[in-house]
Amino acid sequence: MSLRSLWPVLWVVTIGWSQTNQVAYVKYYRDRAAFLGDVPLPAHSRHQSAHLDVYFNEQDQPLLLENISASGDTVERKVFAYGPDGALTQTLLIGGDHPDGKEVTLYGEGEPWSVAFRKAAFAPQLHLHFAEQRTRFRLDSSNRIQSLTFYTVNGFPYGQITFVYGPGDYHQEERWETLPDHT
Question: pTM score, two decimals?
Answer without folding.
Answer: 0.69
